[in-house]
Design a protein that fits this description.
This protein is mainly beta and 261 residues long. It has three domains: 100 residues; 87 residues, Immunoglobulins (Immunoglobulin-like), CATH 2.60.40; 59 residues. Helix content is 0%, strand content 51%. It is built from no helices and 21 strands. The strands form five sheets. A five-stranded mixed beta sheet has the order 1-2-7-4-5, with no helix packed on it. Strands 11, 12, 14, 15 and 16 form a five-stranded antiparallel beta sheet that branches. Strands 17, 18, 19, 20 and 21 form a five-stranded antiparallel beta sheet that branches. It is elongated, with a radius of gyration of 27 Å.
Length: 261
């Protein structure tokens, strides 16, 4: 039996005019599906012949030009996997109006966020509904920078995540976000954490082949046109291949200009 599968995240799309099943796989978000159900091509009744949810036949009224697939009656909890199969006759094509309701959505809240005793960022979330990556950002050089990602559990309840971060001198700011199918970021509460680290300085290793930092730091090197040339975390940066000229360097909490001779 051939199948037509709607693309929901990583589901595979396989379209054919002779499909007998529409398969929708996703995550239960507490919302129902709505279906447009045309007449069969032979004029004998409606197109759809039956619907199953996670292998169980539904009692939805498929003998109608439009109907609702009621997911709430299947003992599903938010975040549960859902597999909906809509069986229909050949030579006609039903339409699911809102397949996006099965996409994972960003609904999390951050209940705690802190730097732990190992100088790692630890945060606890609640109210997740579908597995999505968490993006950890740090505020440096007047901008938010992505410094880590971690896959979310996606289930309701409390979940704690720990990621490695690079702390700079003074006050550090961190935040966590997710981006779901709507492409709109959802942010957790921000952390401000003060360190007693000394400010980082740098010097050139002559003849201008390397920049040496006084301590490990995150850094970025830009051309005078704003193009990024190098970035990383370490105690040194190789600049031997740079042509002579002026460059910008971001490190620790500072932005400065240096001249390569």
């Amino acid at each position: 039996m051939k199948r037509l599968t709607y693309t929901l995240l990583l589901s595979v799309l396989c379209m054919t005019g002779f499909a007998e099943d529409i398969v929708l796989k996703g995550i239960y978000q507490g919302k129902n599906l709505y279906v447009m159900n045309p007449f069969a091509a032979d004029g004998n009744g409606f197109c759809i012949t039956g619907v199953t949810v996670n292998g169980m036949a539904t009692s939805d009224n498929v003998n109608s030009s439009a109907f609702e697939i009621d997911l709430s009656v299947h003992n599903l909890k938010k975040g549960d996997d859902v597999n909906v199969v809509i069986s229909h006759k050949k030579d006609c094509q039903p339409k699911v109006i809102n397949p996006e309701v099965l996409n994972p959505q960003s609904t999390f809240t951050v209940t705690t966020i802190k730097i732990d005793k190992n100088n790692k960022l630890a945060f606890t979330t609640n109210n997740e509904c579908g597995s999505l990556p968490f993006i950890v950002e740090q505020f440096r050089w007047n901008k938010w920078i992505k410094v880590a990602t971690v896959d979310g559990d996606g289930k309701p309840g409390a979940h704690t995540y720990t990621v490695d971060v690079n702390l700079h001198s003074g006050y550090n700011r961190f935040r966590v976000k997710q981006i779901d199918y709507t492409r709109k970021p959802r942010y957790g509460k921000e952390l401000k954490h003060r360190t007693m680290l000394a400010e980082v300085t740098y010097s050139f290793v002559k003849p201008f082949t390397e920049i040496k930092f006084s301590a490990e730091t995150m850094y970025e090197i830009y051309s005078n046109t704003g193009a990024i040339i190098d970035k990383g975390i370490g105690t040194k940066a190789n600049v031997a291949s740079l042509p002579a000229g002026d460059y910008f360097i971001n490190y620790d909490t500072k932005t400065e200009v240096f001249k390569k001779k």
